[in-house]
Amino acid sequence: MATSKKTLEAMPRTPKNVRFADWMKLCTERFGQPRQSGSSHAVFKTPRPGDPRVNIQNDKGKAKAYQVRQALLAIDKLSAGETGDQHEPNKKN
Fold first, then answer.
1. Is 15 exposed, middle or buried (0-12, 13-18, 19+ CB in 10 A)?
2. CA-to-CA distance for 9 and 17, rounded, in angstroms?
3. In whole angstroms, what is the distance from residue 19 CA to residue 51 CA?
4. Is residue 59 within 8 Å of residue 20, measured between CB atoms?
5. pLDDT digits (tens, 9 = 90+) for 6-64
6. Residue 58 in contact with residue 68, Cβ under 8 Å?
7. 84 or 35, which is more confident?
8. How would you write the chain as a 3-class SS string?
């Protein structure tokens, strides 16, 4: 199993080639224990309002590429210190 740092570095370059076990470990380290697991999905709660969930699935031992990109976005936002959109003005169309 690769280290979390190596997994995180490899994810943007090759989102289709991330092992699910490594990805699960990384998400658990970043977001805590999943609120749902045991089914085909593992759902992690993030501390951000708006889109507070990261959903991951095992696809024959690999991570699903679109979910890798979603998890990367959530990790980037958490790393940047974003905790919500409280200062964003209300958009009215």
1. buried
2. 12
3. 24
4. yes
5. 777 777 777 888 888 888 888 888 888 887 666 677 888 877 666 678 888 888 888 88
6. no
7. 35
8. CCCHHHHHHHCCCCHHHCEHHHHHHHHHHHHCCCCECCCCEEEEECCCCCCCEEEEEEECCEECHHHHHHHHHHHHHHHCCCCCCCCCCCCCC
92 vs 45, which has greater pLDDT? 45
Residue type (1 letter), 11: M
The predicted model scores a pTM of 0.69
Distance of alpha carbon 80 from alpha carbon 90, whole angstroms: 22
